[in-house]
Design brief:
- The protein is mainly beta.
- The chain has strands spanning about 1-10, 10-20, 25-30, 40-45, 55-65, 65-75, 85-90, 95-100.
- The chain has no helices and 8 strands.
- It has an 8-stranded antiparallel barrel.
- It holds the Pfam family DUF736.
Length: about 110
Amino acid sequence: MIIGSFQSAGDGYAGQIRTLLLDAMIAIVPAKPNDAENAPAWRVLLVEADTGVEIGAGWERRSERAGSYIALQIDDPALAVPLRANLLSSTQNEDEYHLLWTRPVPREQA
């Protein structure tokens, strides 16, 4: 399910995430370089009212089927668990990106 639409903005991305609980403009910007294993490559910021509040992080990923994408984790006190979604290039427009969410499969069913 597509829960957001984004465009390139400088060295990052800007767009809107929209679900039943969330409706916010966010920016995805490069994180400061870090040598730690599994450190995020991206920061997710709330840009409404110019707050710049960090609400998540992103990691570079690659798959044979989807190619390169960014795996995002967005957190909010209103959410029981962090929202995990993937930012992928649109297949129709190379300047557009979609934030895709899929309901996680419970471990006993996986």
